[in-house]
Amino acid sequence: MMWKEKYKIGVSLIDQQHEELFQRVSEFIKVVQSKGDWELRLAKVKETMSFMQEYVVFHFDAEEEYQKEINYPEAEGHKIAHKQFKEAVGKYAARLETEGFNEELVQEFSGKLMTWLIMHVAGTDTKIGDYVQRQGGDA
Ligand SMILES: [Fe+2]
């Protein structure tokens, strides 16, 4: 999974954070799908899991803050989408803790994470950029 120019919403702070997220998720997927001893790959998997949990919250907060600043009319709905995303990541994190970091579950999670991220950035976040443009402002 690669970061694509078309995912840019035109707000540089958010675009930079999105790019970072995509890079991390794609690294994560590479490690999850690579061959070799699972135990050896596990350290990277765990590191990415904790990064994702922290960075997703940091990024969502920044994005929500920006929406407030620009009086974005769909901010409430967007916040709900973020909450659901965080909950979904949190559920997997909890399952991985209780069920153990087995390869199959991590693979399932990495696939979902990629889908959620693309859907959210391409489907929901791009609307922020559209709004800024409609307002005639520079994002
Ligand atoms: Fe968002």
Automatic annotation (TrEMBL):
It comes from the Bacteria. Keywords: Iron, Metal-binding. Residues 10-128 form the Hemerythrin-like domain. GO terms for molecular function: metal ion binding. Coiled coil: none annotated. Pfam families: Hemerythrin (PF01814). Gene3D superfamilies: Hemerythrin-like (1.20.120.50). InterPro entries: Hemerythrin, Hemerythrin-like, Hemerythrin-like_sf, Hemerythrin_metal-bd. PANTHER family: BACTERIOHEMERYTHRIN (PTHR37164). Belongs to the hemerythrin family. NCBIfam families: bact_hemeryth, hemeryth_dom. This is Hemerythrin family protein.
